[in-house]
Amino acid sequence: METELNEFERQMRRDINTFMDKAQDTKRKAATSPPEWPREAVDEAKPKAPRSKAAGSPKTGHLVKLAVRTKPLELDTVFEHVSSSISRIEAQFEAEKAARKAGYPIIGHVIETTRL
Question: Taking the model in full, what pTM does it have?
Answer without folding.
Answer: 0.50
